[in-house]
Amino acid sequence: MNIVLVGFMGVGKTTIGRKLAVRLGYKFIDIDYQIEREQQCKITEIFAQHGEAHFRKLETCALERLIKVKNTIIATGGGILTTPGNMNIVRKIGKSVYLEASIDDIFERVSRNKKRPLLQTENPLKTITELYEKRKELYSQADININTNSMNMWKVVSLIIREL
Ligand code: S3P
Known about the structure:
There is one protein chain. Strands 2-3-1-4-5 form a five-stranded parallel beta sheet. It is globular, with a radius of gyration of 15 Å. The longest helix is centred in the last third of the chain and has 16 residues, at 124-139. The protein has a single domain (3-163), classed as P-loop containing nucleotide triphosphate hydrolases (Rossmann fold), CATH 3.40.50.300. It is of the alpha/beta class. It has helices spanning 13-24, 31-39, 43-50, 52-64, 86-93, 103-110, 124-139, 153-163, and strands at 3-6, 27-30, 72-75, 95-100, 144-147. It binds shikimate-3-phosphate. Residues 9, 13, 32, 43, 77-79, 116-118 line the site of shikimate-3-phosphate (S3P).
């Protein structure tokens, strides 16, 4: 079985995914990291040099290649479901888990660094709120929905395992 973690930037997909993989004895793949490694380039540089549309193509290619993996936890980038067709690929890969967090929690977590090109705006909170509104419907198509608010990461991992 594979598990695909989806959800907004900063909800902890990578951290939770790694811990979940340890608990289940599965492999772990982070799509953003895989893209950076293949392109030998940071996500911020890909956005700056080639634009978001190019990044989305790389993201879909990386996702398609995961159809064949087994016993793997996959952390996706927060915008992966904005590309039409990607949810169908996610369904082919495995069970999808939406990690939900409040806008306040997200803002608090993403404010810690400048790794996210889409949030380098004058008013990141406003940007987060707008993107969140646009995307929440997409995330809610996942098989399992986990509310991570005020919960530590290991607790979230246990909850996911219980819901599988
Ligand atoms: C994005 C989320 C990022 C990364 C890119 C775009 C998005 O991943 O893929 O900056 O559109 O939400 P995280 O969700 O890991 O921050």
